[in-house]
## 1
Amino acid sequence: MDRIELGSDLEIELDVFSGRRNPRWALSGERAVDIRERLRDLEPAERRDPPGLGYRGFLVHDRRLTLRVFDSLVTILVEGRSWRDTGGVEELLITQAREHGYDDVLRASRDKPRPSRTG
Amino acid sequence: MLQFLQPLLRAIRPFLCWLLCLIFKRKPKYEPSRWNDPYQPGFSYGHQWENNCYNYGCNRATDSYAQPGYASGNWATVMDCPTVTAGAVSDGLTTRPDGAQSTGNCAHTVALVMAPGYDYHWYRLDDNGMWSHKVGGSAARNTDENGNPIANPETAARGPYTVFCGYFTVDRCRVRIDGPY
């Protein structure tokens, strides 16, 4: 498969939490078409797994598959093939997350790790 | 017939658990394949994305993304140490002063850490004396954020989970967890 084929209804999951349920929102219509267009003709890349705790990018759920968009890479989960995010999908989803009110969550999860403390 | 037996089984489950724990040692083992996708028939739960760090810490897959306090009617929705601790204690976990392994054949130690105002996370002490964890729906693993084995969750690299809340004992016959998802 040279291109990632997605359906018309998508669910986006901001993968940031460990205990709490991740924020999610639905995408359909023009916004889903936009994502599909951006995922066409991407360049293959080597897979890199995200770090554990904190911001791990976005999961794009389709009926058939789930993609992780993180650190300028698009990866099909389980199967594991990756492409470079030349379409700017991650930046687009970050903008959408802010529109959905998750700016604070994004900022907190992308903070540089600080020294551990006891509380 | 089975429906008739269910209330009886529910009622005697704690006793059966206690009885099994008298005979068998049931500390958690580090077996990531039991938790992680892809599904392995006869071994994996195949529900990696439906179980989080609290499920893994308590060594119980509910497939409902368990939340501290939810099963006992005290769901902790404020993300600070006292609130999440209260929720966990309400579910049957007990606080403990240190990270040594809990005594008893069916008890083990867990640790709670916090990204204040944002989220909580749990680590579990396995029967090999090292700690492991599961980050949300991601795969269970036994390394910290720097890729090192976890000998002490207080000093492990924990990303934004900067506050160490404390240690707890999970007694599998007493603890009841569940979630809303």
Note: Chain B has a mean pLDDT of 92.
## 2
Amino acid sequence: MPIKVDSSKCTGCGLCEKSCPFGAISIEDRAKANKPHPKFKKIAVISSACTLCGACVDVCPFGAISVTAEKKETDDIALYKGVWVIAETEGDEIHSVTFELLAKGRELADKRKTYLGCVLIGFGIRQKAEEIISSGADKVFVCDNKALEVFVDNAYVEGICGIIKKEKPEIVLLGATAIGRAIASRISGRLKTGLTADCTGLDIDHQGLLVQTRPAFGGNIMAEILTAYNRPQMATVRHKVFKPLSKDLSKRGEVIEFGLPENLKLQTKVKKFVEDVTQKVNIADADIIVSGGRGVGGPDGFKVIEEFASALGGAVGASRAAVDSGWIPYSHQVGQTGRTVCPKLYVACGISGAIQHLVGMQSSDVIVAINKDPSAAIFKVATFGIVADLFEAIPAIIGEIKKIRS
Amino acid sequence: MDIIVCVKQVPGTTEVKINPTTNTLVREGVEAIVNPFDLYAVEEGVRLKEKFGGKVTVISMGPPQAASALKEAISVGADEGVLLSDRNFGGSDTLATAYTLARGIRKIAEYDLIICGKQAIDGDTAQVGPGIAEELGIPAVTYVKKIEEVGEDFIVVERMLETGYQVVEMKLPAVITVVKEINEPRLPSLRGKMKARKTEIPMWNAGDLACEMERIGQPGSPTAVRRIFAPPQKPAGKILAGELDQQASELVAELKKLSLV
């Protein structure tokens, strides 16, 4: 392992053990570890749970821990040029995350003094290339094929890997949607390169590397991740993290057609698609979410939540307690075992604020909490709190909204 | 039907915080748990075994203490467990982890279906499941909420997408990653607990798996964490005061200021 504890310097003080986010350090008897020292009886031992994050190196007052970066053999990374976005298509429409990535991609391409490319893959989507160019792209790589009419993982993976190998982009960005995540992992595996999920920030450092910032541990810690020696540097980004550019209709770009590899065998067959009718607005995409918890009291109580959500123009969310009680389907669940959301406004009604719920919504821009119990944990993360019965508070707030609108 | 379920031992994430002034991590009594999504994967594997016969093997990569996660899976019905453990696996990112698990799965050799939880709650990447399929060169379907049909050499599953679900058929062997909606995991029985206590968990290292050393651990990981830091702190919130009507109008006024109404 490239991380070492210097036996002559370690005092066994245990600061590193406390600092390790992965529980990879234990303080053990030197005798047992076969590392004797005239003065100190204990020593830090690092297990294979270590991810080499370096937290312990910074905290050690004796400089006893060191991480050596192993320089790796790389293929000629200087050959790789261009920042790419893989467009996500929904039928013959482009998912809005694509335009958000194009805006960020434009900024990164300008910093790297290179071009912005976009892969447009699907069926009946060729005419969308112009829109992609006016949204920032210099080159659009189009694969319009009947075989891609419905999303089949390996057809998309084969197609995208083929064009990446040919054109050698240095950066490839995808939306962190169900589809984007599924194919991104296979593409990076096929190309044996690095992939960072759910980035909330992307930038170029002084060495020209892509700095990928992402939350870990439910947003309690942020990490900066680099793919230093492999290309392309790949990242996924959630919907609504970046803002799209306004369209520039005068912008010109190049459209390059490419095909699927010959004798491509589809590994999966989509038999049908069933739309979720209970979900008027998808919570992962919503700008405003009104959620109900145990305090809502039952399925009827959710009518009040729905009314509130429609007054605000938002989607309905729920805590695990409400979902497990069968008051509302699982697709509405926000939290650790449901969806992680980051809307502009999150309203928690009758939700106590268990940590498993908080990690799923605490990065929302503005949080409003309505709860009878003034000591509820939800108030700790709330921007605005109302201590009241939700069945009294919500009608009063809806009344105010109507007043302000009229 | 022989099934392999991948599980991960994760820290009970909630207590992991960063001290914003010293930029060091504060961990208080972090207990190790089985990644919650993996419990649904184990349950689904056990249900398939109960229906079609065969065997459920749970596999994990981690330090020696991760054996307890495998024992927990055995206590709810898995038959055997294998722990991939080697100091050289340290520093693995999702690519190296997928490679290492795929090596372990190849060594187990007998499998029709591999089940993973949709993601681990510490990393939240959802990358390892499809990554394993890529290493093994077999199909994968992510976010499975229901298994509709299991045939001789194929499976039909429902895959959750943002706006609904797909019904997908694929050939076996294959990988699925499952969401919480798929089942309700059982609690360990007394007999299960006894069995878990008695079951030996073999530990396989890089040599046992015949790993290419440049594909495991830090050398096999294209990504590296350069720096960790505390997220920007939000200013403390405001509890509104006065009569309920006043609170309601103050709230709406504040939301209007922020262009949210």
Note: The CA atoms of residues 230 and 243 of chain B lie 38 Å apart.
## 3
Amino acid sequence: MIGRRWDGRLEMTAVFSWGFTSLAVATFLGMLVLFAAQSLPLWRHAGAGFLSGTTWFFRAGQFGVLPMVYGTAIVSAVALLFATPLGIGAAIFTAELLPRGARRTRLAVKTAVELLAGIPSVVYGLLGVLLLRDFVLRLLAPWDPLSGDTLLTGGLLLGIMVLPTIISLSDDALGGIAGSQRLAARALGLTRAETVLKVILPQALPGLASAVLLGLGRALGETIAVFLVIGRQDNQWPERLLSLRPLTEAGQTLTSKLGGSETFLALDDPLHWGAITGLALVLYAGVALVSWIGARLALPGGGRA
Amino acid sequence: MRRSVGRGWIDRAFWLACALCAACVGVLLAGIAGAILWRGLPVLRPGFLTAVSSEAGASGGVRDEIVGTLILITTALLVSAPLATGVALVHAVYLRSLPARRRLLVALYTANALPSILFGIAGMVVFSRFFGWGKSWLAGGLLLGLMILPTLSVALIERLRSLPRKYREAASALGLTRAQTVWSVLLPQCAGGLLSGALLGLARAAGETAPILFAAAVFSGAGLPSGLRDSPVAALPYHIFVLAQDSFDPSVESHLWGAACVLVGLVLGLSLLALPARLRAHEEAQNA
Amino acid sequence: MLRARNLLLTAGAVALTFLTLGGAGNAFAAKPLRVNGSTTVNPVVTEAAEALRAERGMTIHVDTQGGSSGGIAALGDGRAEVAMISRPLEPEDRTKYPKIRFQPVQIGSDAVALVVSRDVWDGGVHALSKEQARGLYEGKIKNWREVGGPDRRVVFFNKEPGRGTWEVFAHWLYGDPKKAPLVNLPEIGANEEGRNKVSSTAGSITQLSSSWADGKKVFALAIRRDDGKTVRPDNVSIRDGSYPLSRPLSVVTDGPPRDESKILIDFLLGPRGQELVRKQGYLPLAAQGAARQ
């Protein structure tokens, strides 16, 4: 270990470091505790019915989380279905399939992807409102949608937003595979496709999985962009869970509800506020779980941590 | 050497498919950049940046919003930098066991992914109501600082990890205490990492709407904050968010795009400043 | 060289700064005037605030989170000094915040219109009765054919809860917004969003401030009253009250307006403020006889 052994005096740097870290940890955990505490009136009133309820009528005191969980799930699923193949394909292209000497191109692509990742969500929301909405309306015309604000619109917009995350992390994952693997494969006569598909991808799988999971985490938590294009229609619980019909209809996600005007209206009503913080609690727990799994996959246990 | 025809076709098809993906991504990026620039640039006269918003957003500029955003991200940096340094030092210096360090890093990644709206709601409860601050710039700064804390911490940890062991060994051989090593050897070497991590974090903080939605920003009337309580700021993302729904006038739309241009410019500027350091670090890591 | 003592001194200095900011912050800062509420009234009040800010250096914060009911809630909570509402005050407001002496001041009038998209208008639907409106809202009338329009599915975009526009509409249909049945409809927040959505969706209808119906993208329907008369939402019918969905646009304070609130309200009631009301397309108080196109 570096430095001399601890000689009994208080080391201010250590005190401050541990103090700050404890403060940071306490704050993040404190948020969770805060939501749990503030949502107590709801749990007392509705209990587990909140988690299984399919209706939300705040004027009547009915609170159910399922339609919003459904909306969040559908929108994220669409986003991942859109962004995963596109993102991993693009990452494979830049990492594996470009000619060896194209370092500048790779750099340019990497820069472009980083910049795309940095565009604020409100600007994506603006693009969604002004451009994507009409596009989806025309796309779905055969199915006669009510408007361009649908779960599909939200999903596509989210897909575009998580694309840079998936590309960047996939690129890192692919880059982590030793070059000797590729050389050996090519020396054995494998084509580029076979090298990638049979040698590289299987090894990069944990990294790719974590890229997808972290992208999913971002999709689950995105508020502003989804709020603007999702239609904000409550109680959209489908009759058949696996039908595609809801994609053409408006919906509501956990985040779009939290970012809306009900949060202000609920401030003075303990039950209503409890429902809102209950949503926050569910969102926190869900995203934390998904991201935790993704992070564990990204950081192998037996490496340098 | 003769390859079977089938494998050749698969190879070409695969290359094509991946190239198509990359092309799609490129087109998307170009389209987004083009849309923002095409609609927003015509509005960007110099006066736009220095004029106050008037006619409820239909004319004027975004001066207050820019000032507000700058205040928020500066506060966020001041809050976040010391905390992030503490966390990074705990990881690099004070935690002895590998599993503990890994758990900390996993926790940081998880915290980094938390939805920003949660910060907004928690901030409303704690700062606006419990502390009684109403809408306050400091609440916004604290929330944003907390939000980017994981980003800064991870950047600093990565940089500390990449420092050659010989520095620590030399310091130890010279008889420096742990604290002396930290302050004289480790932290000065990591200034670059802290800077680039900070710039990235600030880029994200500048563009966030959800944390400041409830506890820090108002749409109209906020210039420089005076004091702590009931001192909100205007902010670019909130301005855009409100106008995107509440635009009262066709002329608002062009101003909306101008504001979006300014915001994207600010965010990209911050990211670009960090890029050289990050790419260098990335290359170092790849070659290690 | 950095030593623990220096670190502690720095930390102490920073903490002291924060405490000073927090504590003394109130002492020397001019208290800002906080306004919150309806997005319909907002443009008028925001422009008034801009003028007062430029000319008299007043600090006025205007926000619209939560609509009319949000404004009342902010006033009741002490988060605002002035609330903007686009509906009359209701007994429920007073019972919810018994300590607040709500004092509304009307600054203009406006009406809630049922606006439809072009295809519905061109298809022959120019007026609706209360029963028909109720049927459309509750989803019992699913096709425009049933009210004399084109063969097209009805799409009802509902105004968000808490918006004055919705409350006026619910009041008209059911007498009391609380008696309104629970419906599942896509929601619209502010006026511009409503206008955009209706103009781009065939067969759609929504509740919208009548001054936003421009007759080009969206069209305001007349109301067929119980006595058979058809009333269009225009200045005359709003002024004489024959249009059932007219509403006052007001600002509300706790008790009589004082200090900065009084300055703002006097401005709004004065010629410049009333000109702003007229500029937005609402009916100013004095309502001169000149009709607008």
Note: The domain at 61-298 of chain A is CATH 1.10.3720.10 (MetI-like fold).
